[in-house]
Amino acid sequence: MRHRVKGKKLRRDTAHRRALLRNLVTSFLEKERIRTSLAKAKASRPLAEKMITLGKRDTLHARRQAERFIFRKAVLKKLFDELGPLLVAKEKEPKMAMSAPRGRTLI
Q1: Contact predicate 56/88, CB 8 Å
Q2: For the segment 74-100, what is each residue's pLDDT rounded down to a tens digit?
């Protein structure tokens, strides 16, 4: 039974899956749009939304939490200096659109 088992394995071991999701979220925040499979998009969406929420908070603790997850300093700076204030002004979360033919997805 799969009680309390959260997330998809994506046919990878733990370290590979964690690195993959960190790369996907970092690329999404950097370019604001990426192209990936539906399964990877569904797995990375909650993580990307969490990083966006941290960017909206803009506290020292939120920066340190995001820094543990995001690889590149330039993306971290963009998240807190550009994306966070922009999304606070809009007062709603951005949604990731998943639509493309043959299992290729834009998030």
Answers
A1: yes
A2: 999 999 999 888 888 876 666 665 555
Q: Where are the domains of the chain?
A: 14-92
45: Cα separation from own chain's centroid: 6
Comparing C-alpha atoms, which of 62, 98, 95, 96 is closest to residue 79? 62
- Give the separation between CA 26 and CA 24, rounded to whole angstroms: 6
The answer to whether 35 and 99 are in contact (CB under 8 A) is no
**Secondary structure (3-state) at 90:** helix
Q: 61-75, pLDDT tens digit by residue?
A: 999 999 999 989 999
Alpha helix segments (H runs only) across 11-83:
14-31, 38-57, 60-69, 73-78
Strand partners, 105: 36
Q: What pTM was computed for the model?
A: 0.81
Specify the fold of 14-92: 50s Ribosomal Protein L17; Chain: A, (3.90.1030)
